[in-house]
Amino acid sequence: MTRFFEALPSGDCAVLGPMLATGGGMRPCEEAVSEMHAHGLMLVGIVESKLDGRDADVVLVRARVARDGNVGKEPWLLRVERQGGGWRVRF
Predict the structure, then answer these.
(1) What whole-number distance in Å separates Cα of residue 79 and Cα of residue 51?
(2) Contact 42, 17 (CB under 8 A)
(3) Alpha-carbon torsion 8, 12, 16, 20, what sign?
């Protein structure tokens, strides 16, 4: 997940696309990245990560995320899934 946020400013879906989860209503990379840029999303820090007890291929990550320059009071809950031999973040 950290790699995703480090690469986010580039807006390059050739790099970011393989780090985004697919299926389940996920929008195409270009749309998702455009929205993230519009809101200035930035990773501030990871609070906690733990395996999802319902699925061994899922890690639940609580992260401090800045949006439009403001860090929310509560951490975001992000889902990181093992897909295609790697880990991908689902927003």
Answers:
(1) 10
(2) no
(3) positive
